[in-house]
């Protein structure tokens, strides 16, 4: 095997490993989107009601999003979290000179919630099904797992190529990484579109802002790494095969 192709193969493997780690970390963490809001220091009846509704298994889309807006919420593909004071007061302290302890309360999305229909008016089951948001949500949940699966399958083929001491099977590895990159890019696009459509229907309260978190950024970085690994795998396998064919023809001649 030519040193050029071996170097390209090693670099592609490193890129593939990094993108797999990034994608796995992105799926497993809860910071795809983050809200920033004024801290609620008191435990009024309204706040207690919002906390209880958020923790309920029957919380609908509007209910848990209202809590995310008010209490510095974060949202991932699997869980939603809010930040609440650890020591709450029935009154609002007149002056605070030092920071107080807060705790993070998280609730997981059930499998049923992941595939539940989204409504035109969030929280209103009589407003009709919003098919666009429904399928965007399902795609943003499923595509990252498809991407990871394709990369793992590609890694198995690459391992077989190493055992056989041949680069030609890595063309399949490159194609699988290309498909994985498309799945990752599709997941990121679906998530952005879904968030934008949600905020059009549920406007952020005053003094509340939202931004994409570092988990989302990891997924964004993972996609180009997958594309670069794919290009290197395909180039190394195709060029090596071409040179081998020419050399064989030359010897025959």
Automatic annotation (TrEMBL):
<dbReference type="GO" id="GO:0070161">
    <property type="term" value="C:anchoring junction"/>
</dbReference>
<keyword id="KW-0965">Cell junction</keyword>
<feature type="transmembrane region" description="Helical">
    <location>
        <begin position="216"/>
        <end position="237"/>
    </location>
</feature>
<feature type="transmembrane region" description="Helical">
    <location>
        <begin position="141"/>
        <end position="168"/>
    </location>
</feature>
<keyword id="KW-0325">Glycoprotein</keyword>
<keyword id="KW-1003">Cell membrane</keyword>
<keyword id="KW-0812">Transmembrane</keyword>
<comment type="function">
    <text>Plays a role in negatively regulating the permeability of cells to small molecules.</text>
</comment>
<dbReference type="GO" id="GO:0005886">
    <property type="term" value="C:plasma membrane"/>
</dbReference>
<dbReference type="InterPro" id="IPR004031">
    <property type="entry name" value="PMP22/EMP/MP20/Claudin"/>
</dbReference>
<keyword id="KW-0472">Membrane</keyword>
<dbReference type="Pfam" id="PF13903">
    <property type="entry name" value="Claudin_2"/>
</dbReference>
<dbReference type="InterPro" id="IPR042356">
    <property type="entry name" value="CLDN1"/>
</dbReference>
<feature type="transmembrane region" description="Helical">
    <location>
        <begin position="6"/>
        <end position="27"/>
    </location>
</feature>
<keyword id="KW-1133">Transmembrane helix</keyword>
<feature type="transmembrane region" description="Helical">
    <location>
        <begin position="174"/>
        <end position="195"/>
    </location>
</feature>
<comment type="similarity">
    <text>Belongs to the PMP-22/EMP/MP20 family.</text>
</comment>
<protein>
    <recommendedName>
        <fullName>Claudin domain-containing protein 1</fullName>
    </recommendedName>
</protein>
